[in-house]
Write a structure and sequence with these properties.
Blueprint (H helix, E strand, L loop, with lengths): L2 H8 L4 H17 L3 H16 L3 E6 L2 H14 L10 E4 L4 H11 L6 H7 L5 E6 L5 H12 L3 E7 L11 E5 L6 H22 L3
Parallel strand pairs: 1-2, 1-3, 3-4, 4-5
Length: 202
């Protein structure tokens, strides 16, 4: 039984109690995050900006939405258009994704985009709760073999991606707790965006 089931069973179906316990649980998970890994990711982003390197975000499902949100908040939200963060989400071009998935399989949707856009030294950021999505694993393997800087933002036990990325940020939870993991990934987006917005103006 995962934590959310336990919370539900212990709150006698009360939505108010469930909300209170959910937020308490989320707070505990946030406290467990490795701040040094977050700082390392921030430094990677700042270095990419300084060197005019591209930053590619990838993810599936809810993590695809987070990838888009991250790219937006870093590229546009930081408001440093004189020297921008060149961040893009490879989840956003539906015609490209469906063409690759239809012709070559869903496992290829990110790696083929990287093959056409990626240059050595660019940054690839994988966002995945399980860390085991085949298209994410394949993209990270390609990135690492082509001199990318790789980051994995993960959940659960980190899965396969935990050993593939140079920098790992993980919200460790029991398997299947997608909601809390994806909540934390969005907090990371806003935390990092808030810092970058301020540091580039200082």
């Amino acid at each position: 039984m995962n934590t959310l089931d336990k919370i539900f069973n212990n709150t006698t179906n009360s939505p108010e109690e469930f909300a209170q316990q959910y937020t308490k649980y989320l707070s505990k998970l946030l406290q467990r995050l490795d701040s040094s890994s977050i700082a390392e990711f921030i430094e990677i982003l700042l270095s990419a900006r300084e060197d005019n390197r591209r930053i590619f975000f990838i993810g599936n499902g809810g993590s695809a939405a987070t990838a888009s949100h991250f790219a937006n908040d870093i590229a546009i939200g930081t408001r440093c258009l004189d020297k921008p963060f060149n961040a893009v989400s490879l989840t956003d071009n539906i015609p490209v994704i469906t063409a690759i998935a239809n012709d070559d399989g869903y496992d290829e949707i990110f790696v083929q985009q990287l093959k056409t856009q990626f240059k050595s030294g660019d940054v690839v950021v994988a966002i995945t709760a399980s860390g085991n999505s085949k298209n994410i694993v394949k993209a990270l393997q390609y990135a690492k073999s082509n001199d990318a800087v790789t980051v994995a933002i993960l959940g659960f036990d980190g899965g396969t991606c935990r050993s593939l990325a140079d920098t790992v940020i993980i919200a460790e939870t029991p398997n299947g707790e997608y909601g809390p993991v994806e909540d934390i990934h969005m907090v990371l987006d806003h935390l990092i965006g808030a810092y970058l917005t301020r540091v580039v103006r200082s």
